[in-house]
Amino acid sequence: MSSPVVDVTLWQGQQECWIGESGLPLEIGRQSRDEENAILRKVQDLGNQYRIAIAPITSLGLPRHALSVSVNDEGKLELRNLHARSTFQIASDPVPVMPKATVQHDREFTILLPENLIVKVVLCTSLSEKKSDVGSDFESQGSASFRTISPDSKRPASPNPDLFRADFTMPMNPGASFIRTFTEDSNPNRGHAAVDLVRQALAVVKKSAGSDEFFDTAVQSVAGMIELDRAYVLMREDESKWWVRAHFDHRDQETGEGTHLGGGETASAGANPLSGKRSNNDETVEDAESVTDGSETPPATSKKRSTRLDVPLPSGSRLLLQRVLQKRETVMYEPESYKHTIGSSIMLLDRAVASPIFDEHGVVIGALYGDRSYGTNHPDTPIGDLEATLLEVMAGAVSAGIGRQRQEAIQASMTQFFSPAITQRLQQNEDLLTGRDAEVSVLFCDIRGFSAITERVGPEKTIEWINDVLTQLSLCVTRTDGVLVDYVGDELMAMWGAPAEQPDHARRACNAACQMLKQIEPLRERWKEITPERFGVGIGINTGLARVGNTGSLVKFKYGPLGNTVNLASRVQGITKKFGVSALITRATRDALARTAANHAVAIGSDVATECDEAMQTRRLANVRPLGVKEIVELYELQTGNEPTWRSMADRYESALRSFHHSDLTAAARELASLVHEHPGDTPSVVLLGRVVDAITNQTKKVNPVMEMQSK
Q1: CATH code for the domain in which residue 571 is found
Q2: How far is 308 from 215, CA to CA, in rounded Å?
Q3: 240 and 215 in a common domain
Q4: Which of 99-108, 272-281, 618-627 is the least confident region?
Q5: Are residues 348 and 447 in the same domain?
Q6: I need a surface site. Which of 113, 119, 147, 158 has the fewest CB within 10 A?
Q7: Tens digit of each residue's pLDDT (9 = 90 or more) over 620-639
Q8: Do 225 and 85 share a domain, yes or no?
Q9: Region 332-353: what's the mean pLDDT?
Q10: Is residue 417 part of a domain?
Q11: Exposed/middle/buried for 696, CB within 10 Å: 0-12, 13-18, 19+?
């Protein structure tokens, strides 16, 4: 037999202020001098007993050791007054508990204590001892209680594959009632009818799981099939708050209001069993421990995630929701009677049931709740295991619908950063987003002429133009399975090689750059009324190790790289202006490009071919030291296409560059003078010729092959 456990609920006047579970024996009293404030209203395991300090040390009216609760050999609760002078009053007994006296109760008691405190203790041991007959355990107990579904009722049937078809539907009377299915003698196939109800419930919810309609459908279906007066989809805000996502009330049907599904505020509920009223407040529950067992992390992203309903939580539901959080399974509540008298007060109690809604990690993010009120047209019978099982199926369907919505939202968010191919791999392995070191190729692309266009056409037209340009450039990234890291004004940043490994990341980056260069003329033609002739792009690419992961914050996600590889790629992009070219890559990128070509048995030389649809050529331009960078970087121009004329010019330029590095200034000057004459628009030849002329003028015997950049 399992160790006895009790549920303890504490009220301070009319306000329910603490709920917990404790082993036995249990001592209750005021805080002692040696007890810190941190343990106030928390269960302490003292070894030989448990203790709860329900009031601070300043509450002098309550003794430090007020009463103890235990279970005797007959399985009954024993309450002992530990104080030598104080007397306490049990709510249902006119005779007070005298000093040092002991009284017995079968399952529970509610006791009035000094300092306007009320404590209710309910024995939970028998909650695991269920009978298979629906509702029979309620009748035998004869007192209010919470219970979960009997294990016999949870035996799974063989799943029907049709249930998981998106187009599955089953003809059924919309007014089908679960209760009448099992109470009408005219229905000989009750088992099959039950399965039909479960199938219908799941099919209805699955049919609209792609939109918010499934919340509406779930509460209507539950209320109709289980014959509930009200049904709710309740969501957790955080550790201490719940709010209404959807609500159905049969009384609203009579007034024509129908199902509620809209916006509102957070609500909470609590009901003092001695208040004589059913509380219907919408105050926020502040005590985090009262609604979580501490074993799971509540969802941190529920705020503003979904539409709230301006409806308060069902009265008295907090204890039931607490039980759902603790047990992580469907819980039913059955009052002692619908007319329950304490003193001169009469309150109307509801039968209720709630089933947890889980997220993909098994965290309770909400509950599907329903109740029956006294005096309505629905049957005056307990909510049985089979009805609760149907609610559980519906809650599972709601969980699946929420999970599907979240996955669709995540996928939509991912498409802003990743290509469809990368998104699919991320969905298969979320660990790819974990921060790590990886070899990547980073691209920066700056739009030339942005300021001139802004000054001439104004912000409205500029935004239209820049959106079009960035869209076309971004498509070049996604088509090569790159990551769109960021947009900064008129600059785009992209990355290849992460989050999914791409051995050919350098090839992909260069291919994207070539595609970008091909987009310039169509964009100039499309916006020729506003774009100057100098409109173009400057692209810089570098390859190396970087730290990849979420480089944003908890508020805004941004997946990308960090480190020197990134900084150098940005500097290389800036150097394109100095050489008057559209795209530059580093030696590291060219070497990675060559390795990729070799791995694919494709020759690299005059024409660097790839598996993609872009042919590309490179030309060694210079050795430079970018501003703020210690290392010397060897830069190459990246050119799209395979024109023989350009290749010939590039070969002659590289020959002149070698002569310059070997201090053969005469040979370098002769070659460059011829190049500038034949290709006056080739800025790199003009720049190198200027360096040669300076060296000759200064009579330099050994030239410095490194260009020191003075600006970004």
Answers
A1: 3.30.70.1230
A2: 12
A3: yes
A4: 272-281
A5: no
A6: 158
A7: 999 999 998 889 999 999 99
A8: no
A9: 55
A10: no
A11: middle
